[in-house]
Design a protein that fits this description.
Cyt_B5-like_heme/steroid_sf; alpha/beta; heme; 4-stranded mixed β-sheet; 2 domains; TIM Barrel; Flavocytochrome B2, Chain A, domain 1; metal-binding; disordered C terminus; 8-stranded parallel β-sheet; 18 strands; flavoprotein; mitochondrion
């Protein structure tokens, strides 16, 4: 029975490898229908590893990775159970070298010898897990369907023979004895307070930290180098004090707005943040459903742990998604991404321009034990692992992007272009000159350039130097990075922002409680924004004016609240 179950699992897996002919001959026997694995999860630098793996093989991140196909299509296949060989665990253990490297993932055995030199994180990461069950480490780093998409049918050697597994192993990556961190996460999930007990963004983040794995927390929480930019993003909002007007009727309030003409119930949106599947099994589906219920726009990351096809199927009527794009050196990959996004109903594209090279995210690197991306540009001698990462990043990110590339982007898609990652007034001016519809003032949540200015400070400078851009609506200006309170949102709106994005808070709320956590976050922000507007004496977004905010001249982040010196 165990052997038949293993073969059935292998048959399903085998069927996802495409129409290429298997090296094994089909034998008569019971038949099973092909269907693909559900995409979820991500991992170390999944913004990089998943993208580079997919790009290097001509597969793109939002492709429907072996999703179920309609009956009657050429992709529907049948695989004989007898066709799937069983591999003994002792045989697997023999193949642990560069000359012959096998791994076990989700009960299936793969020969990855020829793939070692292509792995973005280098060969050592694979070799360290060769000859044994690598499901846990693989699952932390990659979507489940990725291995079947990248390898040829001949590299899928078969299913592990369960009768040969050592005691305590199931062959699917789940050990009978949970790790210490897994036990901690399970305990935290059981003991998590009810979602209604959370009354602030910080409360949701605190719960998320408890229920997330160390790997997931390190990935999402990490910032560049000393994390000065991350910390300053949050603290910077304390540099701006509010000037309320009183004796104004504020019983009735309207917080509705529009981004590029698309309505939103609140002046906030979901900033694209990759790999929500690391925090919650449903990944971006929870954020999608929660943002739909809250009536706000969702930004979908290129490295989403759920495919656009899955999100499209779950999308509520009238709900709006904007797609985030990293431009690949091979423009054909980016073109496929954009066409897929447009076909799946995305209404605009966040063109991310602040990632010519990856920032050094130390918490992520320390948690996962991988080398610094500085090897990309440092030159000189590199370790094998560093060389692998350097090669992968060179294959994916286009470090030579420039404003003239807008012509190429417009030739590929009709979606309006939002330039995301603008950090100076000069670049806002250039975006206007080039006819862009909107910009996002953002430093990538403090994950790219350490000591980059806080976006709220860039917005303030824009208000001082070029108020015409804001007042005459020459371009829509959004802001993200560091937003944690309704007062933060209102301050940005007063200075001229059209709307404000939130990335980590939605990631954390989804990790903590799934869809209900996302709804709770939106409710918290709605209440705080409404209270702030009423106490300022405003009942409409249009009534929020620059004179309602004053910049504190002497700011000490250790003392976030003090009077401006007049």
């Amino acid at each position: 029975m165990l052997r038949e179950s293993a073969r059935a699992s292998a048959g399903v897996c085998r069927s996802t490898l495409g129409t290429a002919r298997s090296v094994h001959h089909h034998l008569p026997g019971r038949r099973i229908t092909a269907r693909g694995p559900v995409v979820s999860g991500g991992g170390i630098w999944t913004e990089l590893l998943a993208l580079t793996l997919l790009a290097g093989t001509g597969i793109y991140a939002t492709q429907r990775l072996r999703e179920p196909q309609p009956r009657g299509t050429a992709r529907q296949q049948a695989v004989s159970l007898a066709d799937v060989p069983l591999v003994s665990y002792p045989e697997l253990q023999k193949h642990t070298t560069r000359e012959s490297c096998w791994i076990l993932v989700r009960g299936q055995v793969y020969d990855v010898t020829d793939f070692l030199s292509k792995h973005p994180a280098g060969a050592q990461v694979i070799l360290a897990n060769a000859g044994k069950d690598a499901t846990s480490v693989y699952g932390a780093f990659h979507p489940p369907g990725l291995v079947d998409s990248l390898l040829s049918p001949s590299q899928h050697l078969g299913a592990i023979d369960p009768s040969t597994l050592p005691a305590g192993e199931r062959g699917t990556g789940t050990a009978v004895q949970l790790t210490e961190d897994e036990q901690r996460v399970e305990r935290a999930r059981r003991e998590a307070p009810p979602v209604d007990s959370c009354i602030s963004v910080q409360d949701l983040e605190d719960v998320a930290r408890g229920v997330m794995s160390k790997l997931a927390w390190g990935y999402c929480m990490s910032g560049a180098d000393s994390m000065s930019a991350y910390k300053n993003n949050i603290a910077a909002f304390s540099r701006y004090a509010l000037r309320p007007r009183v004796l104004r009727p504020v019983a009735d309030i309207d917080m509705r707005t529009a981004l590029l003409g698309f309505p939103s119930a609140l002046p906030i949106f979901v900033s694209p943040a990759a790999n929500a599947g690391l925090g919650h099994p449903l990944g971006e589906l929870g954020i999608l459903r929660g943002s739909f219920r809250g009536g706000i726009i969702q930004g979908v990351a290129s490295a989403s742990s759920r495919s656009l096809a899955e999100l499209e199927r779950a999308q509520g009527e009238g709900h709006v998604m904007f797609f985030q794009l990293y431009v690949n050196k091979d423009r054909r990959v980016s073109e496929r991404l954009l066409r897929e996004a447009e076909q799946r109903g995305c209404k605009a594209v966040f063109w991310t321009v602040d990632t010519a090279v990856p920032g050094k995210r130390e918490l992520d690197l320390k948690t996962r034990g991988l080398p610094s991306p500085g090897a990309v540009a440092a030159g000189g001698k590199k370790t094998a692992t560093q060389a692998g990462i350097a090669s992968s990043l060179g294959d994916y990110f286009d470090a030579n992007l420039q404003w003239s590339d807008l012509a190429w982007l417009r030739s590929v898609t009709g979606m309006p272009i939002i330039v995301k990652g603008v950090q100076t007034v000069e670049d806002v001016e250039l975006a206007v000159e080039h006819g862009c519809r909107a910009v996002v003032l953002s430093n990538h949540g403090g994950r790219q350039l350490d000591y980059a200015r806080a976006p709220i400070d860039v917005l303030y400078e824009l208000r001082q130097r070029r108020p015409d851009i804001l007042d005459e609506n020459k371009i829509e200006v959004y802001l993200d990075s560091g937003v944690r309170r309704g007062t933060d949102v209102v301050k940005a709106l007063c200075l001229g922002a059209t709307a404000v994005g939130m990335g980590r808070p939605f990631w954390f709320s989804n990790a903590a409680y799934g869809e209900e956590g996302v709804v709770k976050l939106i409710d918290i922000m709605a209440e705080e924004i409404a209270t702030t507007m009423r106490l300022l004496g405003a009942t409409r977004i249009s009534e929020l004016r620059p004179e309602m905010v004053v910049r504190v001249r002497e700011f000490d982040p250790r003392k976030p609240y003090h009077r401006p010196r007049l």
